[in-house]
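Journal club prep — side note

Before the paper discussion, L.F. wants everyone to see what a predicted structure for a comparable chain looks like in token form. Sequence:
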Amino acid sequence: MRDAMASLPDANTLFQHAACGLLLCASDGTILQANATFCGWLGYGAGELIGHKKLQDLLTIGGRVFHQTHWLPLMQVQGSVSEVLLDMRQRQGQSVPMLFNAVRRVHDGVRYDEIAVFVASDRRKYEQQLQLARREAGVLNDQLAAADRRKDEFLATLAHELRNPLAPMRNVLEVLRLAQLEDPQLCWARDVLGRQVGHMTHLVDDLMEVSRITRGRLELRRASVELAPVVEAALHSVASLAAQCGHQVHVEQWPQAIWLDADATRLGQMIANLLTNAVKYTPANGSIWLAVACAPGEVRLTVRDSGIGIAPEHLDTVFDLFSQLEPALSRAQGGLGIGLSLVRGLAELHGGTVSAHSGGVGQGSTFELRLPLPAVPLEPAVAPDRRLLAGTREGKVLVIDDSADAAESLALALDILGYEVRTAYDGAAGVAAAQTFLPQVILLDIGLPHMNGYDVARQLRREPCGKDAILVAVTGWGQDKDRKMASDAGFDLHLTKPVDFYELDAVLQKMLQAQ
């Protein structure tokens, strides 16, 4: 240790050859000491600087101005400057960027400025690289934002295009229900149509709701919800598909009623999506188990299957958007890869969690949904009346839609209920029909030829026939901005295709009674 200590450089050597330039200056800038590092950077001998040059003499013109206007006031007020970047002139006349740190101290009653200097050419290079990286990152962020906007626009357009054919299918289904069919085969066909239309509508809604969740724009409609009926409805929604695959579905429910503060529709979506996932990824003649149990402060819904299982490396990604365990074409029942992502988003909005477990490929999978129980017991909600009887309604309704199938099927269903209905297939014809028919309610599509639904609504609001009419937008466009545009154009209500016929009838009755 002594030999090591004896070999250390003395203080003067450390000062002269420090990794930075070291200066001692009088308060007026006169250089009183300068180490060899600093002198070597500028190409001067120590004797040429000490007592002959002031610090400001070595600066460029811009540096001298800064020294006068900023450096000196700072040293006088706070006694220090830090990380000041200034250019200095070498003896050969070249400019060198340097970074200064200075402290003013008093020795024996005299003020001195102790200064440390670093060559900043590398720093400038790094700053330039950082600025370039930031610009590139900004461009990339703009590209990603544009891609995200295009994705949202694509999903919205896809949903619109899918909802347009679903609307007349839903309307025809309501006509068949109102007709009170007696033929068992026709009843079976009607029920099949209903299930498949519901499934398609469910897929379209999933697309839009995942997009809303990722943008933080989905709001829950919370109410007192009993869990058992929601579970039963979810089981019913997958019963046909499970039967086709030959699966056995085993259900174990909690013996007491469980009430949640939840959005009933979203709750049903979560359970149905977990069950659908189990059905799709379980080979034929498999088994699926659904268990509902309560734990302190929460309810647990567990969906287990004897299916293809999940490899350990995929457990962390099964809830990612568009994630699929196998290529979509390799499974006849493959979905869009959005169901589990939607479950996770809706679970988090409810204050809950969802997790996946599996022993590996071929070992089946288990998904556990946990939702918080309310701190205070909830009162049962009043179940809505979903019964409709033919010939029980009154009121004049005008349907304007460029799809003849959609317009006529909706008109037929309304006519069976008892409404007096007229149809039109474009905006001009719709305005003309309104002037002669004088409807109380106008159901108006947005995507009309020649004149869109917003323009038609504005014109109707200027006409006596439409000034006080109830204007309802019935459209495949269902984003928040579409609802705002409809409201700004004068619509009283915005409904997304395919319209829930019970909801439409309830709204019409409420508005007509208010008139």
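L.F.'s comment for the group: The chain is about 45% helix and 20% strand. Keep this in mind when we get to the figures.
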